[in-house]
Design goal:
The complex is a heterodimer of chains A (about 110) and B (about 150).
Chain A (H helix, E strand, L loop, with lengths): L1 E6 L2 E6 L3 E2 L4 H13 L4 E5 L5 E2 L1 H14 L4 E5 L3 H9 L7 E3 L2 H9 L1
Parallel strand pairs in A: 2-4, 3-5, 4-6, 6-7
Antiparallel strand pairs in A: 1-2
Helix pairs in contact in A: 1-2
Chain B lengths: L2 E8 L5 H12 L5 H22 L7 E8 L3 E8 L7 H4 L22 H8 L2 E6 L4 E8 L6
Antiparallel strand pairs in B: 1-2, 2-3, 3-5, 4-5
Helix pairs in contact in B: 1-2, 2-4
Classes of the chains: A alpha/beta (about 110), B alpha+beta (about 150).
Keywords (chain B): ATP-binding, Kinase, Nucleotide-binding, Serine/threonine-protein kinase, Transferase
GO molecular function (chain B): ATP binding; protein serine/threonine kinase activity
InterPro entries (chain B): Anti-sigma-factor_SerPK, HATPase_C_sf, HATPase_dom
């Protein structure tokens, strides 16, 4: 479900699913937790292939943020349409830094 | 113009997206892309609740969705045969789960957002429970009714 790539000490995690919903959220959370527990604490989540997230998926993202802790960074790149709408609607856009591109998200976290 | 269609799946979270995409496609000619997003999200949240809470994750139970396309609104009924939801969950909504303090990591919600999202995204939400079934009715008004 996830593919990863290390850039400037920032882990770029690309989600290869079109939907992060209640059926996919547990696996998503498990894979993300493995990335975090392997020592990565600056993560860019590339959601450009994702066209739908429900509250279970959003909850999984929040859970990752909590696991990273206050010194970690989790930025979101490439959220559009229904995905970007969900972040705004739930005011999670105050929690996750939303970037149009992976490049700008990596730049922010590696600064 | 009034037409309606019924769809059903069994209580399997893997099948919710099939239903959601079908209903979204039905609404395409009537609702703006934003309103289609609103309907799809509400439907998914409602069905997830039925499967996770109503049927407690048990497979092999039925979830029916009836979509009514009317001249001025889309009416979506989600029908199940689980134990009914406590009506006060809908009537007296708990505190807004999205009014959290974003600087307090522990305050940011990980669950309990589904019903709030449904209320925010639909124009009317009604829950009817009888001896034979539970029915969650969600209405989305069509902004510019078709001639």
């Amino acid at each position: 479900m996830l593919s990863t790539d290390l850039r400037n000490n920032v882990l770029v995690v690309r989600v290869a699913e079109k939907r992060i919903d209640a059926s996919k959220a547990p696996a998503f959370k498990d894979e993300m937790t493995k990335c975090i527990d392997s020592g990565q604490n600056q993560i860019v989540l590339d959601l450009s292939s994702v066209d739908f997230i429900d509250s279970s998926g959003l909850g999984a993202l929040v859970s990752c943020l909590k696991r990273l802790g206050p010194r970690g960074g989790l930025a979101v790149a490439g959220a559009t349409g229904a995905v970007s709408r969900l972040f705004t609607l739930t005011r999670m856009d105050r929690v996750f830094a939303l970037h149009a591109t992976v490049d700008s998200a990596v730049e922010q976290l590696s600064a | 113009m009034v037409s309606s269609i019924s769809l059903s799946i069994d209580s399997d979270l893997d099948k919710v997206s099939l239903l959601a995409r079908a209903v979204r496609a039905l609404c395409e000619d009537f609702l703006s892309p934003d309103d289609q997003d609103a309907v799809e999200l509400s439907l998914v949240e409602a069905i997830n609740n039925v499967i996770k809470h109503g049927y407690q994750g048990k497979p092999g139970k039925d979830v029916q969705v009836a979509v009514g396309l009317q001249s001025d609104q889309v009416v979506i009924d989600i029908i199940d045969h689980a134990s009914p939801m406590e009506p006060q969950l809908l009537e007296q909504p708990a505190a807004d789960p999205f009014s959290f303090d974003e600087t307090e990591l522990a305050d940011i919600p990980e669950s309990g957002m589904g019903l709030a999202l449904i209320r925010m995204n639909m124009d009317e939400v009604q829950y009817l429970s009888s001896e034979t079934e539970n029915r969650l009715r969600m209405v989305k008004r069509i902004e510019r009714p078709l001639p």
